[in-house]
Amino acid sequence: MSVKMEASAGKLSENTLMIYGIVVALVGTYLTYLNAVTGIAVFSFFGGIGAIAALWWGSDTIKHLCSYGLGTGVPSAGMVAFGAGAIAMIAGTKFGLASPIVTLVLAAIIGAVIGYCANNIINMNIPVMIFSLMKLSIVGALTMLGFAAMCTGTFMFNGLVIGGMTLSMEPAEAAAGGAQTFMVTVLPEFASSLIGGAALTVIFFLGAIALQHPFNACLGPNESQDRTLMLAIEVGFLSMFVVAVMSYAFLDIISATVGVVVSLIGWVYSYKQYIALSKRDAYAWLDAKPIIEVGGNE
Amino acid sequence: MSALGGAAAGGEGINPTGTLVGIVILLVSIAATYALGFSIIPLIGIIIGGALVGFGVHFVPVGGAPAAMGQAPGIATGVAMLAAGAGLAGLFGGAWAFEATGDFAIAVAGGAVGGGLMMSITCMMVNATYVFAMGIPAASGKVAKDPITGDTFPEYKSQGTEGHGLPFISFFGGVIGGIVTGLGGTLIYLALLGIYETGLPVIMQAETAAIQPLAISLAGIFAIGFFLVNAVLAAYNITGTIEGPHDPKFKRVPRAIIGCAVASAFCGLISMLIVLNTGM
Question: Is residue B154 part of a domain?
């Protein structure tokens, strides 16, 4: 049984963050469906916003899991979240319009099984283990789904695996009058798609780094919730920027540029906010004080 | 040692209830796979591959932050990072070998060699850094004598440390770990590739040759996901640092094998849902 050493009491409770994270991630992912409704792809960037909301919530969940002595460092939690999330996300996209919901449910189930393996078979005996891994798997799956939706403009399996269409023309028999006729068939191309070209792996690691970085960078005796969460938003926008650049390969120029502009504006704003919060926390430590023991069982 | 100073969790011994429930989950996953009309041979391959990854990770000498300061033996990074490096190198090697030859045995051997090569290069460069840049000799803190070479350690061990550097037994363990994890990762990849190569053309109504890049990409992404899940579960079993096969923590390995097998079985079942015809 481990002793809980650290958890900065934040203004926002874990459950509040979870509700905001799930709702914004799902709504953001569903807003990309406007692409299919309106026929233009400029709504793709909402997927990235949804992914950032999931990362924002996930960095707080990681904080609660890693404040127990896992012994393996914070990044491992981000890796397991996206390992499980990738499986749930790809399997979940098969379910058409219900994909985001199915992805969420599948991720929760996979996370519960992995959490059970870690907690009861491997004997970690950490009270929040199963629930935390469930939440982290959902974060991983929703982040990947959001970024994939932003990159391709859709969250459905066919859109993610079919990169384009090629026309194949084969000469058919000569028609009456001696004119040559051709048989035209439309062949889907898989190698140039998000999954077929394995570009999803880039999204995988962009998300995993963005998930594990905020708490890994901010942990310590004067960790404060608003600063960690602001860093999560900042690295989220940074990942979103890379995804927006990737989306030039899949979307039209205007839609991809909208994504780039939104992510750049978001990144500049959140970076400035994060620096301001860092200065605030640094100022609080201006006169060196002994390290405050937060929590614990004293 | 946690970065946050919390006591490392994880007791010794096997939890009988948890293990029993785990085995039930494993059997239910196999039964569900059979009931959905899939062949269970690929799932068995995934389970064995996952268990091999969990087993192999325990051989890798992981030092973490203390090793970076020369206060503990091993490679100075976390378990998940090292295992991912070795396993993914093996995975690429195996995938390449399968692409070139199409032979199962050569692909698995290629994966094992890829992982072993990656770990041996890492261990050698780590030792070069330790010896020539940090100026510390290799000495284990857990055993007095190297089980293979017979070198003695206590004379070289600095006071107040748990040992430092990378002794031969840890180097040996690292290479074995790379071979086993690379083999496991390649086995998972080949099992998934088999499922998608036969399943995807049917549900996508496309030619086998056209669907090939998609099958390879899907199998690769899933294999990375499986690999990271199993590596992190094994890392949780180790809780921090391990010196190699001579470390007392190595005795915990059965728990990791069971845990990884159960997690792989369930994730394998989910990954097969892709080629299930849902009509959507």
Answer: yes
- The total number of structural domains in chain B stands at 1
Mean of the pLDDT values across residues A232-249? 94
First-last CA distance in chain A: 16
| Dist. CA B237–CA B54, nearest whole Å | 9
What is the interface pTM, i.e. ipTM, of the complex?
Answer: 0.88
What is the DSSP pairing of strand B163-164 with strand A182-189?
unpaired
Residues of A in contact with B232 (CB under 8 A): 72, 76-77, 79-80, 83
Q: Is B43 on the interface with A (CB under 8 A)?
A: no
**Of A140, A144, A147, nearest to A240 (Cα)?**
A147
Within 10 angstroms of residue A42's Cβ, the number of other Cβ atoms is 18
Residue B266 touches chain A, beta carbons under 8 Å: yes
Q: Which of A101, A123, A157 to mutate to test the interface with B (most CBs of B within 10 A)?
A: A123
Q: Write out residues in chain B with pLDDT < 50, as ranges.
A: 1-10, 280
Instruction: Tell me the per-residue pLDDT of A82-131, one tens digit each, with 9 for 90 and over.
Output: 999 999 999 999 888 899 999 999 999 999 999 999 988 988 888 888 99
pLDDT-based confidence at residue A5 (cuts at 50, 70, 90) = very low
C-alpha–C-alpha distance, residues B65 and B71, integer Å: 9
- Which positions in chain A touch B260 (Cβ < 8 Å)? 117
For range A66-80, the mean pLDDT: 82
Cα end-to-end span (Å), chain B: 49
Residues of B in contact with A5 (CB under 8 A): 4-6
pLDDT of residue A173: 64
Supply the mean pLDDT for chain A: 86
Does residue B100 sit within a domain?
Answer: yes
Rounded Cα distance between B74 and B177, Å, is 13
Among B15, B228, B260, select the one facing A83 at the smallest CB separation: B228
A236: exposed, middle or buried (Cβ count in 10 Å: 0-12, 13-18, 19+): buried
Contact A98, A37 (CB under 8 A): no
**Which residues are CB-contacts of B278 (< 8 A; sequence separation ≥ 6)?**
A94, A95
pLDDT tens track for B166-199: 999 999 999 999 999 999 999 999 999 999 988 8
User: What are the φ/ψ torsions at residue B103 (nearest 5 degrees)?
Assistant: -105, 130
**Two structure tokens written together for B76:** 């100075």
Instruction: Spell out where chain B has E strands.
Output: 139-140, 163-164
Q: Which residue has the tokens 């050698």?
A: B124
- For residue A22, is pLDDT > 70? yes
